[in-house]
């Protein structure tokens, strides 16, 4: 089926507006009322989370069975629908634009990897896998708690960025790119272990056994980030965790996450999260 032949299946419901670049949906389904989700597509990304029941999700004629507590990531423009397997159930959907996460050229490059190879990046999440469990935990926080906060956009965006980091680390990196460039795995493991420390490009080139030019070119090509933009982004996301999960002072979190200047930390946090660390903590407290 060509893109022209299924153009009539483009969903007409506007998920995204200029004021709100994402939407949350709850659907109660039953086996008597088929389908659970009508056949359609849209230009946004989607996470579908199954809260109750059993569901068959069809994406371009490929079937994925979700059980209670599972989720699935659906890249943009892919035809999808769902049928009930259990007598009844409930699922939630988060639909969001690329712009909601695209804060830099690096993230644009990362999104391009998914957009170009959409079928390769459909994946189901199950709590039986440790990092899937973590992603599911953040998805549930979005679906069940976002509307409890006055600044729901900040809440949703911060959790999505953390989820994106998990995908970047475990899915996009651990795809066949790692087999082609095993040196990158060692570099990434080093960053994840020592992001609190003062990491230099010489440190990374020694680990990768590459020249600086070769490392920067290879790292950007296969991850979408330069080494230091990835390090900065990773540090900011770790600070988000500490702001949410601890009562440590912001100055202490700044140091714990590898920033040696509070003004620089505040500036980079604002650029990435569109809010300050103190406002972020206040909104999520």
Structural class: alpha+beta
The tally of helices reads 12
Unreliable residue stretches? 1-5
Overall average pLDDT: 83
Roughly how many Å apart are the termini?
A: 49 Å
Percent in helix? 40-55%
Sequence of strands across the biggest β-sheet = 1-8-3-6-9
Largest sheet: 5 strands, antiparallel
The percent range for strand residues is 15-25%
Number of strands: 9
Layout of helices and strands, plus pairs?
Blueprint: E1 22-30, E2 37-40, E3 45-52, E4 55-59, E5 62-66, E6 71-74, E7 80-84, E8 88-96, H1 98-101, H2 105-116, E9 123-125, H3 130-145, H4 152-172, H5 177-180, H6 182-194, H7 201-208, H8 212-223, H9 227-245, H10 250-256, H11 262-273, H12 277-284
Antiparallel strand pairs: 1-8, 2-7, 3-6, 3-8, 4-5, 4-7, 6-9
Helix pairs in contact: 3-4, 6-7
Architecture overview:
The protein is α+β, with helices and mostly antiparallel strands and 285 residues long. 48% of the residues lie in helices and 18% in strands. It is built from 12 helices and 9 strands. The strands form 2 sheets. It has a 5-stranded antiparallel sheet. It has a 4-stranded antiparallel sheet with strand order 2-7-4-5, with no helix packed on it. β4 (55-59) and β5 (62-66) form a beta hairpin. The N and C termini lie far apart (49 Å). Mean pLDDT is 83; it is low at 1-5.
